Amino acid sequence: MHIETITYPDFNGVERTEKFYFNFTKAELMELEISTDGGLSETIKNIIDSNDAPALIKIFKDLILKAYGEKSADGKKFVKSDEISKAFSQTEAYSQLFIKLATDADAAQKFVNGIIPSVSK
After folding, report:
1. Angle in degrees, 0-180, between the axes of helices 53-67 and 40-49, rounded to the nearest 10
2. Closest of 8, 5, 1, 7 to residue 22, by C-alpha
3. Are 103 and 16 in contact (CB under 8 A)?
4. pTM here?
5. Across the strands, what pairs with 116?
6. CA angle, 118 as apex, 20 and 30 as ends, to 5°?
7. Parallel, antiparallel, or unpaired: how do β-strands 2-9 and 68-71 relate?
């Protein structure tokens, strides 16, 4: 589980600081790997090697929105849906996170490492 604490202005001009949660289960990660032609890891490597910025931006957007969810109060569930992802994508918090990951390689690497489950668990 990766947590991003983001301070952002809402659309009423109110500054907010909130925690946002991102995660892939092992099953989700396997599905992403298998459903991507040549595998997700290899696809990302090829995009980076070819300096294909538009493709890399699209992959980051997809990863952010697919990993985003809401943790249940009891910690038993991490709820994801198209509606939850879409609602997040319409916030300034998403915009700030997207720009941060697109312009800061260290932050992007930390984010990706944080959303990928540990193999040993």
Report:
1. 150
2. 1
3. no
4. 0.85
5. none
6. 90
7. unpaired
Q: Per 3-state DSSP, what percentage of the chain is helix, strand, and coil (rounded to 5)? A: 55, 20, 25
Strand 78-79 to 68-71 pairing: antiparallel
Sign of the torsion formed by the C-alpha atoms of 13, 20, 110 and 29: negative
How confident is the model over 40-56, as pLDDT tens digits? 778 877 877 787 888 88
Report the candidate in 72, 90, 92, 74 with the shortest Cα–Cα distance to residue 82: 90
48 phi and psi angles, rounded to 5 deg = -65, -45
Can you list the positions of beta strands (E) in the chain? 2-9, 15-22, 68-71, 78-79
